[in-house]
Structure formats: structure tokens, C-alpha cells
């Protein structure tokens, strides 16, 4: 089964950039399906009411993960370069958070 990654955004520009970053990603020799919230069928209003960009990214990741099955969810923190919070969905009741600074990808 193809691994799915759902990015917690509806922003087409962010989706283009994240697809470029993850274009060579493979899991067990298979390409990964990178989807926006809309493409994954997630239509929910998310209250980004955290005290920081990081908290808001975690809120978005958790909200989208609650709506997906067998997918990894990514959400961004917009403070220079894309910084990603990775939240694994509810499949095994496991939450994994990881910050990735992609400033090095900037021209």
C-alpha cells in the first residue's frame, strides 16, 4: 500500500514547494503520495489559537491527523524557510513531532 503524506494546508504554493522537497521520497521502494488537506478529503476549520507558530503547526497537524487514516501529516511553521512539524496519524496512537529547518534549500 502506498504511504500517504497529508500536508495541513490549502495553500497551492506551499504544496508545490513541499512536493518539490519530497519528490524523491520512497518508502519500501514505492513513491509516496503527497496530498493537500483538500486532496485527502479533509474539510475542517482549524482554530490556530496557539501561543506560537510552533503551537499552531501542532494544532493543525493534530486536527488533520484526527481526520485521516494511515497517513502521516505535515504542518508548517512560517518563520523563515519551511519548518515542518510531523504528526503521525491516529493509526497506532503514536504522535511524532519533528522540526526540520529547510533554509538550506533557499537559493
Q: Rg to the nearest angstrom?
A: 13 Å
Count of β-strands: 7
By DSSP (H or I, 4+ residues per run), the number of helices equals 2
Supply the CATH class. Alpha Beta
- What is the name of the CATH topology? Maf protein
CATH architecture: Alpha-Beta Complex
Please describe the biggest sheet, giving its number of strands, its sense, and whether it closes into a barrel.
Answer: 5 strands, mixed
Structural class: alpha/beta
Percent of residues in helices comes to: 10-25%
Structure explained in plain terms:
- With 107 residues, this protein is of the alpha/beta class.
- It has one domain: Maf protein, CATH 3.90.950.
- It has two helices and seven strands.
- A five-stranded mixed sheet has the order 4-1-5-6-7. Strands 2-3 form a two-stranded antiparallel ribbon.
- β2 and β3 form a beta hairpin.
- It is globular.
- The termini are far apart.
- The model has no long low-confidence stretch (mean pLDDT 78).
Q: What attributes characterize this protein structure?
A:
107 residues; globular; five-stranded mixed sheet; two-stranded antiparallel sheet; Maf protein; alpha/beta; 2 helices
List the SSEs and their pairings:
Blueprint lengths: L3 E4 L4 H10 L4 E2 L2 E2 L1 E4 L16 H13 L5 E7 L5 E6 L10 E3 L6
Parallel strand pairs: 1-4, 1-5
Antiparallel strand pairs: 2-3, 5-6, 6-7
Amino acid at each position: 500500500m502506498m504511504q500517504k503524506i497529508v500536508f495541513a494546508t490549502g495553500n497551492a504554493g506551499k504544496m508545490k514547494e513541499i512536493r518539490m522537497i519530497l519528490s524523491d521520497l520512497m518508502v519500501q521502494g514505492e513513491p509516496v503520495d503527497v496530498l493537500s488537506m483538500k486532496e485527502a478529503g479533509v474539510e475542517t476549520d482549524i482554530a490556530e489559537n496557539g501561543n506560537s507558530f510552533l503551537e499552531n503547526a501542532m494544532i493543525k497537524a493534530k486536527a488533520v491527523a484526527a481526520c485521516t487514516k494511515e497517513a502521516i501529516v505535515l504542518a508548517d511553521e512560517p518563520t523563515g524557510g519551511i519548518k515542518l512539524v510531523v504528526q503521525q496519524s491516529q493509526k497506532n496512537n503514536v504522535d511524532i513531532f519533528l522540526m526540520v529547518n529547510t533554509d538550506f534549500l533557499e537559493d
